[in-house]
Design brief:
The chain has one domain: Four Helix Bundle (Hemerythrin (Met), subunit A) (Up-down Bundle), CATH 1.20.120. The protein is an all-alpha fold and 205 residues long. It is built from 10 helices and 2 strands; from the N terminus they run αααβααααβααα. A two-stranded antiparallel sheet has the order 1-2. Helices cover 68% and strands 2% of the residues.
């Protein structure tokens, strides 16, 4: 497949993925689905996986010249990147509400703590006290920790931009929800790279 075509398909997937979870769309879907809206998150996740699977397949089974390969000493750096990405996903999962993110809590409990709920508390423990977006950071690291061909480069750029924009939109929602508390959190904790955490740590020595 043409590298540009594959990148455009991923861009379309990213756009659709973001659109379906946008507050305005969710509000309209709530008016349409009413009580059945509790299944929305689960079907959203299923739809995202099913539509992404063919794109992943196309990416894995193409045959193009590699323009960058993790070879020799760089293999160790690649391994460190994969370990770091795995750590960020695991550490983030300890602070996120897994059942809600999967869409299961909504089905059984109805009311739950989401970014739209007024009774939620701002979580700042664990990895969230070091960086604000461990999963987005882990995702960006993961997409670049592989050998890169022409199509892979285009797709990596699309996915990296998507993840960074996703973090930006999430920040807007959290700022709207938590107001000054979240703005203070932004001033204290870095988004992707823990510069502020490192400066604080070094300042205590």
């Amino acid at each position: 497949m043409n590298p540009l075509t594959l990148a455009m398909l991923w861009a379309l997937w990213c756009t659709l993925h973001s659109l379906l979870i946008a507050p305005g769309v969710k509000l309209k879907m709530t008016a349409i689905l009413k009580k059945r809206m509790r299944f929305y998150r689960l079907f959203y996740n299923i739809f995202s996986i099913v539509t992404a699977a063919p794109l992943v397949y196309l990416g894995l089974w193409r045959s193009e010249p590699v323009i960058f390969a993790w070879q020799n000493g760089l293999r160790f750096l690649q391994l460190l990147m994969l370990i770091l990405a795995g750590y960020l996903f695991i550490a983030g999962a300890r602070n996120y509400d897994g059942p809600s993110m999967l869409g299961l809590r909504q089905i059984y409990e109805g009311d739950h703590c989401t970014q739209d709920a007024k009774h939620c508390q701002l979580e700042k423990k664990g990895i969230l006290g070091i960086i604000r977006h461990p999963w987005y950071t882990g995702g960006i690291i993961l997409v670049w920790a592989r050998d890169i061909d022409t199509a892979g480069l285009a797709v990596n750029i699309v996915l990296s931009v998507y993840l960074m924009l996703g973090a930006w939109f999430e920040e807007r929602k959290l700022t709207s929800q938590f107001g000054e508390s979240y703005r203070q959190y932004q001033r204290q904790v870095s988004a992707f790279i823990p510069f502020k955490w490192l400066i604080t740590r070094l300042g205590k020595k």
